[in-house]
């Protein structure tokens, strides 16, 4: 069997490795941490920094294809992986820098929130003036789960916000008014074949995804065609191979892209039990040159609930609940805000937990 290399050993890598094992592939994880949760379910683990070229070279020698489960990886050292990397470094460099990402998406003719580059507290005041209050300051790199972000309502808050995000290159976005948020998870093969999962309605709390529901419902339905066209345009322009996720705001005048991820995504975890093909298997199919799988629902709907921090203490309730599909990531300490697992329930969306 072939060996799939995965850069990053978090829960996304873990679930990808589990999907790979089912298809008869071995996985080799590369991650700088001591005991990443994906390593436990993989054949091999290399503990190395992502910019350690010697380690990357040895890793590539042992793998037939290399992919990544997160986008915060320095791009230059990956040149040693050459043609084995999918998606390519193009998708990575666009998606790891919010300014590059927004420019790229706008270049595809797709709407994002009005934005400005910010490199100082003074720039924040300029952006506030130009975009109108409130604005959301986001570090260009390394942000996830709402980290590296700060809202700014008045010019007097600029200095504090600049400090709060660690005085690093950032973007400021106009605060958007939207009825709901949704995401599209697409896959594209090297031969150009594409496939999209149904749009997923996402509910966030404190910048962290709380629940994802399909079908996304009447709030989202009018946006679906336009959103799929936008996501396809981005995917094609990147020449993306693998799964790509596009997050949207459902605004009164149409869908607006929030951000993209060049990978499988938390909002797609429902596909493990809820779709004919999971997002993890779909990603593997795309990067391995296999035909893409069927992305349709297996039941009337599905709801995924994240277990964040001490939510995981309720695991025994979920184990006992008929029809609740429990996933625990084997991460150890349940720090506040840390994603420890998730639960998926099939059936009509209405039978899942309230998303309002
Ligand atoms: P992740 O990568 O984990 O999805 P992130 O740290 O990259 O999160 P964003 O997706 O940029 O963060 O933002 C997190 C949430 O904050 C969004 O899902 C949305 O609820 C809210 N948000 C982000 N940008 C805006 C905006 N311009 N206006 C209003 N709300 C916003
Ligand atoms: Mg993000
Ligand atoms: Mg996001």
TrEMBL record:
Protein name (database record) = N5-carboxyaminoimidazole ribonucleotide synthase
Residue ranges of domain ATP-grasp in the record: 102-288
Free-text function comment from the UniProt entry: Catalyzes the ATP-dependent conversion of 5-aminoimidazole ribonucleotide (AIR) and HCO(3)- to N5-carboxyaminoimidazole ribonucleotide (N5-CAIR).
Per UniProt, what is the name of the gene that codes for the protein in this document?
Answer: purK
* Oligomer and partners: Homodimer.
- Nucleus as a keyword of this entry, yes or no, is no
Residues holding ATP: 98, 138, 143-149, 181, 204, 258-259
- PROSITE patterns, per database record: ATP_GRASP
Q: Which domain of life is it from?
A: Bacteria
State whether keyword Zinc applies. no
What family is this protein classified in? Belongs to the PurK/PurT family.
* Catalytic activity annotation: 5-amino-1-(5-phospho-beta-D-ribosyl)imidazole + hydrogencarbonate + ATP = 5-carboxyamino-1-(5-phospho-D-ribosyl)imidazole + ADP + phosphate + 2 H(+)
Q: Name one GO molecular function term.
A: 5-(carboxyamino)imidazole ribonucleotide synthase activity
Q: Which UniProt keywords apply?
A: ATP-binding, Ligase, Nucleotide-binding, Purine biosynthesis
- Pathway assigned to this chain's UniProt record: Purine metabolism; IMP biosynthesis via de novo pathway; 5-amino-1-(5-phospho-D-ribosyl)imidazole-4-carboxylate from 5-amino-1-(5-phospho-D-ribosyl)imidazole (N5-CAIR route): step 1/2
């Amino acid at each position: 069997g072939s060996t799939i290399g995965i850069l990053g050993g978090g829960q996304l890598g873990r679930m990808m490795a589990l999907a790979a094992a089912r298809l008869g592939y071995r996985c080799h994880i590369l991650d700088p941490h001591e005991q990443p949760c994906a390593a436990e379910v993989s054949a091999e683990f290399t503990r190395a920094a992502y910019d350690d070229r010697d380690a990357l070279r040895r890793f590539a020698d042992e793998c037939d294809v290399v992919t990544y489960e997160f986008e915060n990886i320095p791009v230059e050292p990956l040149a040693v992986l050459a043609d084995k990397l999918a998606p390519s470094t193009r998708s990575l460099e666009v998606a790891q820098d919010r300014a590059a990402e927004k420019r790229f998406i706008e270049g595809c003719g797709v709407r994002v929130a009005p934005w400005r580059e910010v490199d100082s507290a003074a720039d924040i005041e300029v952006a506030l003036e130009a975009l109108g209050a409130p604005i959301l300051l986001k570090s260009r790199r390394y942000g996830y789960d709402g980290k590296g972000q700060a809202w700014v309502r008045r010019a007097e808050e600029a200095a504090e916000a600049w400090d709060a995000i660690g005085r690093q290159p950032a973007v400021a976005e106009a605060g958007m008014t939207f009825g709901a948020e949704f995401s599209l998870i697409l896959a594209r093969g090297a031969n150009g074949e594409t496939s999209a999962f149904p749009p997923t309605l996402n509910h966030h709390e404190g910048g962290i995804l709380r629940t994802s529901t399909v079908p996304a419902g009447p709030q989202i339905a009018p946006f679906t065609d336009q959103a799929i066209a936008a996501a396809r345009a981005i995917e094609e322009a990147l020449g993306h191979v693998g799964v790509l996720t596009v997050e949207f705001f459902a605004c009164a005048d149409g869908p607006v892209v929030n951000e993209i991820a060049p990978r499988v995504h938390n909002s797609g975890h429902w596909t493990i039990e809820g779709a004919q093909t999971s997002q993890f298997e779909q990603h593997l199919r795309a990067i391995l040159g296999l035909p893409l799988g069927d992305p349709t629902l297996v039941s009337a709907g599905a709801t995924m609930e994240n277990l964040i921090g001490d939510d995981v203490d309720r695991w025994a309730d979920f184990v006992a609940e008929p029809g609740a599909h429990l996933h625990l990531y084997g991460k150890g300490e349940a720090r506040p805000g840390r994603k420890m697992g998730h639960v998926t329930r099939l059936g009509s969306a209405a039978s899942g937990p309230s998303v309002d």
